[in-house]
Amino acid sequence: QAGGAEPLCACFWPSSAQSEVKLVRKIMSDSCVVSGSRSRSRSIKRVFPIPRQHSLFQPPIINPFIYHIELSVTDKLKIALASVTLVPLRLLCIFFIALVAWPCAFLGRMCCPVCITQEPVPNWKRHVSRFVLRTLGRAFFFCVGFIQIKVTGKKATVAEAPILVVAPHSTFFDAVVNIVAEMPSIVSRAENADIPLFGCLLRCSQPVLVSRTETNSRKKTVEEITKRAQSKGKWPQLMIFPEGTCTNRTCLITFKSGAFIPGVPVQPVLIRYPNRLDTVTWTWQGHNAAMLMFLTLCQPYTNVEVEFLPVYVPSDEEKCDPLMFGNRVRSAMALALDVPITDHTFEDCRLMISAGELTLPMEAGLVEFTKISKKLNLKWDNVRAQLDRFSVIANKSKGGRIGIEEFANHLKLPVTPALKEVFSLFDRNGDGTIDFREYVIGLVVLCSPANTEETIQFAFKLFDLDEDGYITEEEFCSLLRSALGVHDLDVSKLFSDIDVSGSGTISYEVFREFALSHPEYAKLFTTYLELQRYKALQTKDDDDDLEPFKKAQSPTASEDSLSSSDKKAD
Q: Which are the contacts of 228, defined by CB distance < 8 A and separation ≥ 6?
């Protein structure tokens, strides 16, 4: 029932195409009469479980990219007091650190030019730059409010684990891990290297820079990571945030495979911020960076904990499968953090932004892109195009969801049993609405398999009453009114949507093109045929139930032989 891959007409109706069409038309025209004249028959209602693939259920954390700070009156008073006392003092200290950092950055730029990423710097330069960066970095974080950095576990050497994987990534303050990890090289956005002062200091650590605008940037990044990880200690340790974007730390989202492609041992590193008032979490929905920096400066101190887990050595199977390697490391880190895992990724953030641009709630764009793209074989562009279609329907309702009325209006049809059944197949969690994730799954799992060439041909023959190869508006309306049992049904708008040329007739090519671009109608059509088949079988069962009573009337027991009392009793 959930797949709908095979048209029902192929498995139930006679083998002759012409006989199929005639039989279906007859049952369609009789369906209203049957429901009216057989009022004493048992109610025709299908009750069946809808099979659901468990892996496509809603994730335990719906939106890991949202965080809003709840400030009490006391918190606001403390922030107001700190903004005129503590914040100016801290800003003065940060300014002094910046003055000291300028000449260090200038010297670092000379010692580590842009092209230095081709070869590792000599050991003495590496030790000097590491000492300077650690000193400046620790002084900066102290001034911001990170008075004490709690560290548990032991950091592995570059020979034991060439790569450190850090999660969860939730803020720009996560750079504090660099301080306790002795300034390893990092994988960073290429744009960060152009930031005044910070960019020069960043280059001193010989980072791997990633450009999200270059077409082959990902390939170059993977090659550079692999080269360094397999250099047997010639390059410094690499630190990677495999999630690739910031979350609210309520779960671990999909790990990018870049850190696991080299197939070398990695050391998982956990980071926590156990504070009563969380002013550090920087997500796609929430306060901007400047506001978070101000609120953090207003706090007397900010706690942070860094935990180094045991080195994870991949098996031979994991070395050949980076996705498996990454998923198992993520599971081990999630277990230590006591948080669930989800299949959200950076592409979900892009869809969130697109949803906001389409005046939908931003969280409406969340679909767990990693899982959806893998299981349903969808690219980001396909999902983005479906978001446009979804927004046209959902913008007419509140909350970015589709109700049964909006679904019917979108199809330009009344609410019928067939439409209700298709809607229930889309509505995976049974809450009476369809969100974008359910809409995408429904189109791919339900509608596209049903939208076969055979189904389209059968539907066209069904509407083409005079069999002249064209569907007129009269034929179109007549059949739909008869099928749906609504004699005053106005489907002229739907007909005009199909008849884009305005010729008053629909050829098979035009009908096919519309059907392929609107797969919902295919599932509605096959579901309707299934309902008609079910009604026909139920009607046959009713006739079979009445047959024993007909046989019970003996031919010898005529009406004249019955006594008057018997007639009265009858």
A: 162, 185, 208, 235, 238
